[in-house]
């Protein structure tokens, strides 16, 4: 990542939105030495500072994307840290939190150190690795949580793999609790969902495709929240996709467990019908669900039950997507489209802009213990400036990711990133 900007920058005439404080006003923000020096309706002009007129566009904390797949090491043909960071910057994401399911997986301190060094050399945004929860992502033996935390890991997960053994999961949670570590889990019973290509239901039957039931997700989350209550661990269900899972999380939170959950932008804005005529760019894991489940997710986000909205960025190359639907690999890219796609929920009146930005910046930063996620003096100057109303049509060929497997190709979107700032230095548009 680049060093802070040398010259102060004063952003004037901005709609300042800070989910952490509830701020929503027209005002100014002064950046000096990589941090926010002043913010509010009355910030004195500075002769030293470069002045940028925001023209009443939204200036908010930069987004923190929890759980993106970045191909290094081992899958650089799908994505690199450099390409992912450029895509992130174009989407207003100032912090990438990367999954550990690389080759080799991030299950040892030296691999965490390697990734941190690679990020320092090639990333234009902040980059933090998550470490594997079990060695080799095999679900059998725990990793050295303490050593991995010391090396720089910010959370623990087996990525897209679900840990089948309740005994292993309990031990991992108990050790994670002792270190204050966040345990993230992809909740899906592998046996129940085995061979499934999309959401189980009438639409899958009409297409002649095997289904993956919502019960496969809810059952594992039910087990996990009980283990979290038993151990006192900090547990995060990485992706909830159905009403059944939301009911489990709601009960766990009401009982006082330290349980959180996330949802992807795709599951909040798309449903199983978007698969249409076997469109493989809509083949995700977990799969897109019924419209009733999507609406339940949106309501849960509006109510604050869903803590985090993420991109679920999962690049795939052309060869793995240009196959019959049942044989195509799961996954879609999402770093660059995360904010504009999510703004559909704001324009529809289903979710407030404050609530959305809280789930995309403030809350994930809090959960991971990262600085940022707020517009306040002394906070890192990680910012996104965006036009809330700008209409545009997405052309996948222009996306910065190495892979182009987006479900939003040719979609009409409203809201576009104008400027992304990390440590006071603009990283988008590119100089």
TrEMBL record:
<dbReference type="InterPro" id="IPR013108">
    <property type="entry name" value="Amidohydro_3"/>
</dbReference>
<keyword id="KW-0862">Zinc</keyword>
<dbReference type="InterPro" id="IPR050138">
    <property type="entry name" value="DHOase/Allantoinase_Hydrolase"/>
</dbReference>
<keyword id="KW-0665">Pyrimidine biosynthesis</keyword>
<feature type="domain" description="Dihydroorotase catalytic">
    <location>
        <begin position="57"/>
        <end position="245"/>
    </location>
</feature>
<dbReference type="Pfam" id="PF07969">
    <property type="entry name" value="Amidohydro_3"/>
</dbReference>
<feature type="domain" description="Amidohydrolase 3">
    <location>
        <begin position="348"/>
        <end position="428"/>
    </location>
</feature>
<dbReference type="InterPro" id="IPR032466">
    <property type="entry name" value="Metal_Hydrolase"/>
</dbReference>
<keyword id="KW-0378">Hydrolase</keyword>
<dbReference type="Pfam" id="PF12890">
    <property type="entry name" value="DHOase"/>
</dbReference>
<dbReference type="InterPro" id="IPR004722">
    <property type="entry name" value="DHOase"/>
</dbReference>
<protein>
    <submittedName>
        <fullName>Dihydroorotase</fullName>
        <ecNumber>3.5.2.3</ecNumber>
    </submittedName>
</protein>
<dbReference type="GO" id="GO:0004151">
    <property type="term" value="F:dihydroorotase activity"/>
</dbReference>
<dbReference type="InterPro" id="IPR024403">
    <property type="entry name" value="DHOase_cat"/>
</dbReference>
<dbReference type="InterPro" id="IPR011059">
    <property type="entry name" value="Metal-dep_hydrolase_composite"/>
</dbReference>
